Amino acid sequence: MTSLAVVGCSGWLPLLPDTRTPADRARELLPRCGPPADKEALAALSPDLVEAVEPAYFTVLSGNDRAVRLRGARLHIRPTWSASPEALQRALRCHQANVILTHADGVPDDPYAVSGTWLDINVQSGDDGLVASVLVDRFEYARDVLDRARGFTTRR
Fold first, then answer.
1. pLDDT confidence band for 36 (50 / 70 / 90)
2. Which domains are seen in the chain, by residue range?
């Protein structure tokens, strides 16, 4: 009971949906970002660094069974000498925030920023590189993210 009171008083309510708009989220993130033309961010947006793209699927409970749902794309990225997962993740998230707030188009087939929705971008170390998971909750946007990621890599 005490933990419930602490959680309720802290303002963190995990059972309620997040009602922030993509612009709200971008404004929250922007103070932690560098200038929009940051060299690190521009390097992260190079399709030459993407080695492979695959769908990002997740399993959810559906009645007495489990259902597989498309959530976006996983981009396998060739690491550069200075790229840490945290630095790349911040660069991609800041890029998304800048695109949303300036209503810019970003790069062609940009898998890291989709108009009208906030993408959950997470970067982790893979076997021999980095993997950027670009996820969204709505299926129609998930399909768009995957299509954009595939189109992004064919631009090389």
1. low
2. 20-153 (3.10.28)
